[in-house]
Amino acid sequence: MTVESIDRATASRARGAERTQRSLLDNRGVRVAGGALVLALLAWRLGAGPFVDGLQATTWWAVLVALVLTAGTTWCVAARWSVLCARFGRPVPLRTAYVSYYRSQLINATVPGGVVGDVHRGARHGWRGVVWDRVLGQAVQVALVGALLLPGGWRWLGLAGVALVVGAGGRLLVLSVLSTAGHLLIFLVAAESVGVSLSAGALVPVGALVLLGASVPLNVAGWGPREGAAAWAFAAYGSTAAAGLAVSVTFGVLATLGTLPGLLVLGRRDD
Question: How much is the pTM?
Answer without folding.
Answer: 0.85
